[in-house]
Amino acid sequence: MIERMVWLLLANAGALLLTHAGHRRLRTGVAPVDAVLFVVLHLLLLSGSVLAAGMTGALSARGLGISGTLVLGLLLILGEHRRIAIPPRPEMGRWTLAMAGIVGIRMLAQVWLYAPFSSDTAAYHLPKVAEWVRAARFTREMGSDLAATFPAGFELVEAWWAALLHHDVLIELAGVEYAVLGFVAVRALGSALGLSERASWTAATLYVLVPLFNLQATSCLNDAPVAALVIALFALAAWNASPALLMLPLGLLAGTKATGCFALPGILLLWAWNRRNPKTAPSGKRVAAGFSALAAGTGIFWYARNYLWFGDPVYPVHSPSALTDLNLFHVQTGPSWNSLASNLSTLVSSMVRDDLMPPMAMANRTAEWGWVPFSVGAVAVILEARRDPRIRRALTAFLLSALCVLAMVNPDSWFARFVLFFPAIACIATAGLAEQCRPAALAAAAGALLQFLGTMVPRDMPPRAMARLVAMPWREKSVAGLLSTPLPEGPIGVYGVARMRTYQFYGPDFARDVVYLRPEDPVDLPKLMRQHGLSVVAVKLPRRMNVQFQELVSRGDFRKLDEDLYALR
Amino acid sequence: METPAPTGLPARIAPARAVEALGAVALILWRLWDTALVGVWRDWLMILGVFWLIEAVAPEHRWRRPLAIATVAALAALYAVGQVPHLRWLLTPSP
Predict the structure, then answer these.
(1) What is the pLDDT of residue A332?
(2) pLDDT (0 to 100) of residue A88
């Protein structure tokens, strides 16, 4: 582990210095935009590194560590470290600085204390990361879930942290890095919309405290990263950034989740409105073009892979099967007025009130925008939009984006996650109003405090289970430790036709081999398990198939160990 | 370092009152159509629509500020009512 920690430090030092070198040639001279570009570029370089390592079989602590050390050494020889300029202390105001600092420290503590816990994460986001880390390269095996083949741009950054330690204790740092992007992006957008330096930082802090954004930052889900990228695009559009600069977050967005791209019409509208303003251009156009190409590559990669492997860039969206219903797999293709009407009505009538479920990273039947956007933010949006045409235009663009997303996604209990970027405009309006009106500032401060307290612990799991997870030693920290029966040593088979959490079976150090079994008929399962030398299998089947499997259990072929976990006799 | 905002548009240009009033009325009508009449008084968008309409059509007056504060308080109270069950859920030991 000591060796891996050394590689972790060296690789991250190399990545940061490389980001610095690239950023020097990308700078625009506009401080808020440059802050956004630094974070976007860093995420892009991490993503590109993992893509390259994944394709060449170097996705390991040594592979990434040695490459990072070489980059670090080269940049040190070239004297890049001498060009590091410490940015001036941001003019945030004492209270905002304190709150932002506390939120940041709490996020780092959550990274350390939590293990991946949410259901989507365990079902299809992270099993593929586990397979990659175990094989030290990209694998065709990505798990049993139908959504496993979706674009995995966010998982690239997760794989960076997981592969370097060959352990998932720091995997949530990927979400924290995107939270930093959301933070600086809201600040840049606030500045573009005429907020003072202090107010734009206040808006950024309020946005990081939006419950869903905050909870997702340390839960390995990708909706907060998507929201951060969308807001970064809005910010660059508001500053009339050149297309090469816009391409950087756009490429990452396309590679993370398609729902983010549905927000593009509003971004383009805001960009078009600002085209007469002075252009925000990179200092090095060729370097910007190179990074744009890299960003486009990271976005296109997943669609090209799916086309090569499955014959469809958005596989399995166009491949309906009987399994789609069983796997909660409902993906809408194309816009729908019915979806728009239904989603809009549900969002504003019910979800935005956050009263049906407690705050959780999965946001089940809630929007989790929080107190501030709902109360002072809603009033501030009206007052500020009436007062300032820049806010009015941004609000119109945000509304257009939100409506486009709502028209493109299926009505379900979770769609509000796809418009998580929207409360950013309410946070900006709140910060603008708070500067002129003391009661608004007090209301925003009280709401922010309540949101901070309400997001101490995600309620995706019962508090007692979460407390047990937090108390586990870091080496063994995993939701697998919450099972009533400890997982047996050795490999585990997975027979999951319906959606199931399989990530926990790998273990936090990815030590256990997980074999995905796909027999046509449950009756063939024992034979298949013996062929693979498996004695334990996790089973999640639709009703008819489960009846067949339970017949094998009652016949004595299997013994139940835990929920969904069986031993072959 | 204060970076100038990119737009040359002058601030404090209010949109035409009639357009605004139409927008607010449209919002109110939508909420009346989309919400059960018995619950319309506690619909947050209805409250916001009425606030917007007053802001759009009423002349400048010193009660505007208290009205805005009252609207924020009403919305915060609506949100708070929805959070009570979650506090109870948090305090109840899980099985």
Answers:
(1) 84
(2) 84
Nearest to A257 by CA among A386, A418, A96, A394: A418
Of A91, A197, A278, the CB nearest to B6: A278
Q: Are A156 and A55 in contact (CB under 8 A)?
A: no
Confidence tier at B29 by pLDDT (50, 70, 90): very high
DSSP secondary structure, A372-414, as one string: HIIIIIHHHHHHHHHH-HHHHHHHHHHHHHHHHHHHHS--SSS
| Cα distances (Å, whole numbers) of residue A83 to A17, A23, A28, A57, A99 | 10, 11, 17, 34, 31
User: ipTM more than 0.85?
Assistant: yes
**Tell me, what's the pLDDT at B17?**
84
**Across the interface, do A462 and B76 touch by the CB < 8 Å criterion?**
no
Contact B86 A388 (CB under 8 A): no
Q: What is the mean pLDDT of residues A228-251?
A: 97
Determine the residue among B43, B65, B79 to mutate to test chain A binding: the one whose Cβ has the most chain A Cβ atoms within 10 Å.
Answer: B79
Q: Indicate the burial class of A377 (C-beta count within 10 angstroms; 0-12, 13-18, 19 or more).
A: buried
DSSP B26-59: HHHHHHHHHS-GGGGGG-HHHHHHHHHHHHHHSP
Whether the pLDDT of residue A139 is over 80: the answer is yes
Contact between residue A210 and residue A451 where contact means Cβ atoms under 8 Å apart: yes
Using CA coordinates, name the residue in chain B closest to A453: B87
Say yes or no for a CB contact (<8 Å) between A371 and B76: yes
CA distance A562 to A208: 39
Do the bridges between strand A536-540 and strand A492-496 make them parallel or antiparallel, or are there none, so unpaired? parallel
Of A478, A507, A480, residue with least CA distance to A491: A507
> Mutation test of the interface with chain B: which of A375, A430, A461, A464, choosing the one with the most B Cβ atoms within 10 A?
A375
β-strand A514-516 against A558-562: which pairing, if any? unpaired
